[in-house]
Write a structure and sequence with these properties.
By secondary structure, this protein is mainly beta. It has two helices and 15 strands.
Length: about 250
Amino acid sequence: MAILCWNTSAGAQVPVRYAEGLVHGFLSLKTLDGTRIADGDLIQSARGMRVTTRLVFRFKDGSLHDETAIYSQRQSFRLISDHIVQKGPTFPQPIDMTIDGAKGQVTVRYTTDKGEEKVESAALKPGLDFANGLILTLLKNANPQSPPAKLGFVAATPKPQVVTLEVSSAGEEAFSTGAEGRKATHYIIHVNVGGIKGLIAPLVGKQPPDSHVWILGGAAPAFVKSEQPLYSGGPIWRIELESPAWPRTSAANR
């Protein structure tokens, strides 16, 4: 068992400005040219200071992305556990990763190219906070003028790796809902691998691309969309809110 820790300074804690509660959102996952590849659900519930969030994407080819994060929201957000499963033709490397914050341990189960099942475990350095499953929540609570500069993150790879997410704001961008004009803060998330790997990653084409997240501000901040890879080495996909579609036959006609 290895000990995982950052080569850079520890990530920042994000204070709770808006307490999380009951949510069920409908999502779509598309390529950047607008082709829909998966339908998704964001399901969240809260009991006291403990919040459970589940993000599921079901792909047209039968693949599955399923992540459940449990965290506390007492003064600041703190990850308790995170479980992510990625499987099916969409994902070159099927993976099942669990982060146990109480035990300070991360376990990854994966299948090799030869069909062999492997398990990798590592201990997390005590006292560190991680943003796995929490990024959208943290950005909704962030101050747009001074977002958290660094967030810790455990990358879902066969050999678990802790990286630093460097967050910056690119200002506000206009969008609309119907005839109503609105503005969202555009956040850029850069992955800092750290150490020798971080130095050589851009040279060998393995530096992860930046992710982009748009958050509506105001009295009730809300997620608008994101453009990000869902797995290591994967393409950038767009996640957006989806409106329900009803049959063409109206209630009056029925």
